[in-house]
Every structure is written in C-alpha cells, then in structure tokens.
Design goal:
The chain has one domain. 73% of the residues lie in helices and 0% in strands. The chain starts with a helix and ends with a helix.
C-alpha cells in the first residue's frame, strides 16, 4: 500500500515479517470465501499499481513531447 500511496516504507529484512500471515493462512477456520476475497483484492491493487506506473511513465514522456510541439508552433 505504501507504494500506491507514494510513501516510503522500510524494506522487509526477514521472512519473519510474514510469520503471523503464514500462521493465519494455516488456520483451518479460515472461511472458504476468504481466499477469493484476497485474490480479488490483489488483482485490484495490481491494477492500481500498473495504472500508476503507466501514468508516471506517460508523465515523464509528455513534457518532452509538449516541448517539441511548442518548438514547431
């Protein structure tokens, strides 16, 4: 989420960071629909990230194209 929000976050230095998540995933009481929700949410976040990356790439290209258009006027 920090990448989407444009904020910095500390790097993950150890798989221990994921310990609680792994333990939760092992929990037999996890509702069957939970994993469907997780997949949908991951797809949504991936789409947002790809859109943000594309917008950033377009923004870097656009000023040069705009400058060239100004020169030809």
């Amino acid at each position: 989420m920090s990448l989407l929000n444009g904020s910095n976050s500390e790097p993950i230095n150890s798989l221990g960071y994921f310990r609680e998540l792994i333990e939760e995933a092992e929990d037999s009481e996890t509702p069957a629909g939970y994993w469907s929700y997780v997949m949908l949410e991951l797809n949504h976040l991936e789409t947002k990230w790809l859109s943000k990356v594309k917008d950033a790439a377009d923004a870097k290209i656009e000023p040069a194209a705009a400058a060239k258009a100004k020169q030809t006027r």
